[in-house]
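Re-run with default settings, no changes from the original entry. Doing this only to confirm the output is reproducible before filing.
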Amino acid sequence: MYKLIAIISFLLISTPSMGSPDDEDLIQWLAAAKKIDQSVPNALCKASVDVVRNQDVNLFRKVFAAIPATDEQVKVYLSELHDKYFKTSYLGIDNYQIDENEALAFEDAKNSSSSLVSENAKQRGHDLELWVTYRFDTISPKTNKAIQGFGTCKLAYLQNQWKVITLL
């Protein structure tokens, strides 16, 4: 029950446009995720850390869903993310771990009760979306103390393969 409350709290904090999921939706999304082989999505999420850490445009192009952005635009985006995770909000990403039992899957994503999911799906044209929760050890730049960061790596099943749609 604690994990369920933590997931709901996380969803409300991280995705305000999603609205408040009811228990039935949350249980459905958790159950749908358990039916999916998450080995490839988890590997892509772990690769996302390397994309941000190394500001690697080539790796970004391999793991991320195709977007109409130039390499220069991607470099700027990766630089901003790198600053967030290595200078401003956090001081690094250490001990990155996937929380495998907390993944959420949205089947028929275009018609999801989550407006955030349905908008993403309609924009990109996918029917299956997976949110993989993660955590990592880091240092707070404000307090210079050890903390644990967390977030959601979001993926879409596009053209018979998983692609990242939100890095970290």
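The helical segments are 2-14, 23-34, 39-54, 57-63, 71-88, 115-124. Confidence is low (pLDDT under 50) at residues 1-18.
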